[in-house]
User: Fold these one by one.
Assistant:
Number 1:
Amino acid sequence: MIEIETLSVERDHAPVLHDLSLALPAGGLTALIGPNGAGKSSLLLTLAGLIAPRAGRVRLDGEDIHAMRPQARALRLAFLGQEQAQVSRLTVREMVGFGRWPHHRGRPGPADRAAVAGALALFGLGELAERPVSSLSGGQRQRTQIAMAHAQATPLVLLDEPLSALDPRYAREVMEALVAMAHDPAAPRGVVVVLHDLGMAARYADHVVAMKHGRLVAAGPRREVMRDAVLSALFDTGLKLREVEGAQVVLPA
Ligand SMILES: Nc1ncnc2c1ncn2[C@@H]1O[C@H](COP(=O)(O)OP(=O)(O)OP(=O)(O)O)[C@@H](O)[C@H]1O
């Protein structure tokens, strides 16, 4: 369980999150939605412990995230930001293997190798495993980074726009892999994902958090938040959700 208590955050001395209070469930997939500049990335960076709040705090299972040592935090949460440094010489397998570092600290064992192999298979990277990351397409690189976050095997996974470079097939496969991670009966994880694709949020999220101007607009189970009136007000444009052949789609109203 993540508890966000009266959280205020500044970036470059400008307030970007205002007095946010919210509890996120420990399991399931939570979609973070809202217009450009709403503060979604700032919230994710704060949840990851990478931006210190001006006021308020974030607790993970009762512990203040910002008081944890980085090594301890790396066993509790995995974070994938929008802009990742490119480590060009690494192969895909080596990069995914970096996700295991907090577990083995430089001495990988069979469990680490198995976790990497599982992540490579889950994200369709088997055939690319020995390729340098620098030789990959943007979408292949994005899947490599998501696989690395998966291999980290943390109870909480934070992903900022993980679908942005993916074609429809891989966007769907990655979302289904994230759902499987969130509902893995052996080790369910809390997966929090910033999504611009509202159709994906409507189809796959268990919970939805809607933000605008650095404030919370709505939060709750998907069906409570993904409603025509909430979405239209959130994005300042007419939107309607409709069911087409069993899937939710978002249309202009
Ligand atoms: N590195 C930064 N330094 C200073 N201010 C920033 C920085 N990044 C974002 N901001 C500001 O913080 C506010 C929230 O931005 P943020 O990136 O968190 O929003 P977002 O909802 O993730 O937007 P988007 O959907 O466009 O990615 C904006 O006003 C933005 O200008």
Note: The chain has one domain: 2-252.
Number 2:
Amino acid sequence: MHASPDPVIETRGLTKDYGSRRALFGLDLRVRAGEVFGFLGPNGAGKSTTIRILLDLIRRSAGEVLVLGRDPRTDGVEIRRRVGYLPGDLVFTSRRPARDLLAYLGDLRGGVPAAQVDALAERLDLDLSRPLRSLSKGNRQKVGLVQAFMHRPELLVLDEPTSGLDPLLQREFLAMVREARADGRTVFMSSHVLSEVQDVADRAAVLRGGRLVATEDMDALRRRAARRVRIRFAAPVAAAEFAGLAGVRDLDVDGDTVHCVVDGSPDALVKQAARHTVLELDSAEPDLEELFFTYYTDQEEVGDAA
Ligand SMILES: Nc1ncnc2c1ncn2[C@@H]1O[C@H](COP(=O)(O)OP(=O)(O)OP(=O)(O)O)[C@@H](O)[C@H]1O
């Protein structure tokens, strides 16, 4: 599959009112072909509203929307056929086994080999013979994931895909997302926390109170993010040697041990440390959540001032 230069999802000035209450305020969103895009925001930010508009499950109040080059308002059926969609609120009332539902949905999408369904169910440790209405939240989520992935759609739109999955299954799910991207497919997934998407997303956008407050390239974000570093030397070191090094802050030197936070590249710190004998070095993963959180806080201040 070759990547198209056109965005797979594009919204311009997307606005949604529920009666007199505005849920989305002029959203401009572009998701590129072949990328994994994290759509982040706290509960009530408008993630599900946006996603439902993309699938034409609800209608926008204003603005423009294109999904796979089509307008959901006129081509909703085609979009829903071509997209793998996981709803955020999956409820099943049927007594029939999960296998029947998946076979039915597979037929609607032009036929999906049973072996493909079985392989996904096995990966997610899902028993397809159980009646749908008896399934726990986690198992319902697995059925939702199988139906979203099983026809190998060119675009996956997943609303809170990791909710209800234990850590092992979350990892399996992320592997499925990586495989989809390796096949040239596009994944748009929402979450209320960055940590669930940070390892897999190429870019992420933050939605707050119905407004897009940031869109970030994850690699760039990682490079900018702060890391907490601890270095223990063979002999005591002087604080003055480490104070003022490029990127180093919150320095605390306690005899032979240096604690600090490094913004961006640790190069200056590493070179200074290398003048001594280093016994131990720990560097905590950058806290991207904290970096993203600053956007939320900034926005809150703007909102409070208004
Ligand atoms: N059918 C509806 N009628 C009225 N208001 C609604 C409706 N659906 C959502 N809202 C409101 O619109 C806002 C956005 O909700 P939405 O469900 O899109 O947020 P979300 O980011 O998906 O959050 P969550 O993770 O809690 O679902 C919220 O204030 C919500 O109360």
Note: Residues 41 and 207 are 5 Å apart (CA to CA).
